[in-house]
Amino acid sequence: MSTPDRRINASRPRPSNPGAAPTLGNLFFSFVRLGATAFGGPAMVVYIRQMAVEQKGWLGARAFDDGVALCQAIPGATAMQTAAYVGLSVRGVPGAAASFVGFGLPAFVLMLLLSAAYEHAHSLPKVVSIFGGLQAVVVAVVANAAVSFARTTLTRWRRVPIVALAVSLFAWGCSPFLVVALSASLGYWLGDERTPLPAGGVFPATIPDTRKPVLLIALVAAAVLAALFCCQRQLYELGAMMVRIDLFAFGGGFASVPLLFNEVVTTRHWLEGAPLMDGILLGQITPGPIVITATFVGYLLYGTMGALVATVAIFLPSFLVVIAVAPWFDRLRVSPLLARLIAGALCSFPGLLLIVAVSFGQSVRWDARQVGLAVAAFAALRLGVGILWVVLTATAVSLVFGY
């Protein structure tokens, strides 16, 4: 028995401090450092794995993979939830909070600074020129997200009617929240299950029962919303809206884009389409998930307090979901009902993103240069070029040629 064990251990990366549970401070600052350089959307999960599994040895590879499967099955930004799952596995709910906040803090601070700069400088000629060119890139980014969603979800013919339904209903002005709910229901009745999640009951035994802390945090959040309802109705409406968006964003952070567009631009008319596109662009040049655009929206509407309320509201629900579901995920993963509902919900997002790309395109003043920039950006993204490099290159092109 000892010889095979030595061979297995020798083949694994050696953690810096094997077997030692990290302190809350260690978790927080480790994820702050990681969050400050976490560009690349879903690729951020790879960086979390490298740190938590290979470098630190906090989790085994199989347990980490199960955590990623959990985070992909529930609404919210996958990378942020993966950070919370790592902290939950090694230090319980306090560890989940330390990891989650640490990972998202650099993106929040940077977006807050960029939002303030944008508010004061967005009308300057050079800034107008830059964002004028980059708006074509936003169309390419959203279109690329639609294609990516379609490639991963439209693997069976039964899913095509769900996408068609989502496109039709959203194009006719139906709420995307209702579209997602109807798509989930249709996925269930069609009996179309998504690819099964990895089997196996391998969640770490250290994950505690989280029902009491989840209930406590939820009650505190509800009390804060109630106070805002009584004292600051506008902030309450902003926070409640962001909560709904986070709870319906199946498939990762990009799934929030059509929901955010519908609420902020179409339904409430809080912003025009062009400023929201600028916020999405700023979200691409900051580390962290694209839902950090909520910080930009909140700041433009109600300043620093609006940014804080919007940010907490867009992240807290998915944090609560991941720590609430993790102890029970081995049971939920084998549920045919859950698999069908999630499959149907995911199928709605290619259509929703497609319609949003078209809507964004209507805000762009198209000419030959804009078309060329959009086509080049879309091609680069399909070839796997990092979105940060696409945005930075397009920024340079916009400065040189003017838009």
What does this entry show, briefly?
With 403 residues, this protein is mostly helical.
Morphology call: globular
Q: Main beta sheet: strand number and arrangement?
A: none
Give the ordered list of helices and strands.
Answer: HHHHHHHHHHHHHHHHH
Supply Rg.
21 Å
Calculate the terminal CA-CA distance, rounded to whole Å: 69 Å
Describe this structure in words.
- The protein is mainly α.
- The chain has one domain (24-195, 202-401).
- 75% of the residues lie in helices and 0% in strands.
- The protein is built from 17 helices and no strands.
- The longest helix is centred in the N-terminal third of the chain and has 44 residues, at 78-121.
- The termini are far apart.
Which descriptors apply to this entry?
disordered N terminus; mainly alpha; 17 helices; 403 residues
Topology (elements, then pairings):
Layout: H1 2-11, H2 24-35, H3 43-55, H4 61-73, H5 78-121, H6 125-153, H7 160-171, H8 176-189, H9 211-231, H10 233-248, H11 256-267, H12 273-285, H13 293-325, H14 329-332, H15 336-361, H16 368-382, H17 387-401
